Amino acid sequence: MNVAVIGAGLTGLTTAFYLKKAGIGFQIFEKSDRPGGVIQTHHENGFTYESGPNTGMLSRPEVAELLEELKDDCTLEPADETAKSRWIWKNGKWWPLPSGVKTGITTPLFTLPDKLRLLTEPFRKKGENPSESLAGLVLRRMGKSFLDYAIDPFILGIYSGDPHQLVTKYAFPKLYNLEQDYGSFIGGAMKKARQPKNERDKKATGEIFSVEGGLGNLIDALVKNIGPENIRLNCTDLVVQKNDGYYTIGNEPEKFTHVVSAIGGYALSELLPFIGKEELSPVLQMNYSKVAQVSLGFEKWEGIPLNAFGGLVPSVEKRRILGALFLSSFLKNKAPEQGALLSVFLGGVRKPEMAELTDDEITQIVKEEISEMFQLPEFNPALLKIFRYRHAIPQYGFESDEKMRTIERLEMQYPGLILAGNIRDGIGIADRIKQGKTIATQLTNKYDK
Question: Any one cellular component term from GO for this entry (predicted)?
Fold first, then answer.
């Protein structure tokens, strides 16, 4: 067995890490000049900021296991308790998202009829449409104010997407399964909480995390353990050729029994020319959000206290930003002692044109929005960096069912080909790590046989 891993992002690196542990031959091919994909940590003027993901969540035991195995080279940094609080913008003010029954009753975010409606949620009939949108599910079980001021901003924070265009079964399978398995969100959550957990399951604490010194150190640790010599960088115009019983990459003479593609769906037709575009169509048609991320650093923060994970802005509020993370509030050494580090987001599925604005236009918008929303007397950041992502986050929309059938059919049609990455199985750091380990385990089991 000899495996070609296409893409040195978190999925590809995790796959390679576990392949090496199993003693399976592999080679990683990466088009850019550095591994890690969009994950990159920067240090400047006393600030430590990220381009790409800012944090992860310990929502899968595989994350804890990987960090345990890398403990000699990078150290887990759990978020401070502050990260448990989330803010939602409504009517010119930030409000905490309710975290319990009392705050759920008193919050102005939701209407009284919807609060009362929530009492009967456990008794509603479960849905029968596997392609139901997240918006449809929430309206059916919880009401419009919950959609507008909880789910919509939540979706903007995760997918920078539109709940009317996301299919629950694929975008939020745990939520979908709560209703399907238990008939209710509330009842299902209570029953699941009472179920006994084994020691491995307990590792999935749901905590927000980074690693000390930034997520770039996680990438460095993976590269060190994989071996830099096993990663080929600057592999532009990558093309996989299908031969009789094996694959080759470009003009490389090496033969591979398996190819793991961990790149964006939009690039698959160029990578895999032996598959027709029509065959790949459901994957190629996936929509991606366009996002601009602005890292803002202040040597002395003079706005309102940032005692939360971040603030999200519902679409109905018609603001020009999607929200902001308050990174220095819950992670160490992100900013000078009296300062603050924020990560502000613009664009998304509903306003993709915002990510195409000039630097000056984005800076002006951020200045006006942050100054007003956080009561800043003067906008004088010591750090302002803009990052744009044309293919920021794939949207698991109405094509998802056909997309998954297509992936399954192509993998059967072309033995040894594995179509992975964030085109399936989730978009978060935990999802990428779990998928990479799962793929490596499946290949290891084949190798052992």
Answer: cytoplasm
pTM over 0.85: yes
Give the three-class secondary structure for 89.
strand
Closest CA to 430 of 59, 116, 103, 46: 59
Query: What are 294's strand-pairing partners?
Result: 344, 386
The residue type of 57 is: M
Tokens of 443: 């290949």
CATH no. of 287-395: 3.90.660.20
| pLDDT by 10-residue block (mean), the chain, 449 residues | 96 98 96 96 96 95 97 96 94 92 89 92 91 95 95 94 96 92 88 86 93 97 97 94 92 93 95 94 94 97 96 97 97 96 97 96 98 97 97 95 96 96 96 98 85
Give the tens place of pLDDT for each residue, 45-90.
999 999 999 999 999 999 999 999 999 999 999 999 999 999 999 9
- E strand segments, 70-181: 76-78, 86-90, 93-96
Give me the residue spans of the domains in the chain: 2-38+215-285+397-448, 110-194, 287-395
Classify strands 86-90 and 323-326 as parallel, antiparallel or unpaired: unpaired
Q: How many CA atoms lie within 13 A of 254 on its CB side?
A: 15
Distance CA 346, CA 355 (A): 6
**Residues 340, 304: Cα–Cα separation, whole Å:** 11
**Topology, domain 2-38+215-285+397-448:** FAD/NAD(P)-binding domain (3.50.50)
Distances (CA, A) of 378 to 115, 302, 345: 39, 8, 20
Contacts of 381 (CB under 8 A, 6+ apart): 296, 297, 298
CATH topology of domain 110-194: protoporphyrinogen ix oxidase, domain 3 (1.10.3110)
Q: What is the pLDDT of residues 242-280, one digit of tens each?
A: 998 899 998 888 999 999 999 999 999 999 999 999 999
* Distance (Å, whole) CA 240 – CA 172: 32
For residues 276 and 371, what is the distance between their CA atoms, to the nearest angstrom? 51
The two structure tokens encoding residue 410 = 């192509």
Q: Phi and psi for 77 in degrees, rounded to 5?
A: -120, 100
| Chain centre distance of CA 5 | 21
Q: What are the pLDDT digits (tens) for 92-133? A: 999 999 987 788 889 999 999 999 998 899 889 999 999 999
d(CA 184, CA 46): 48
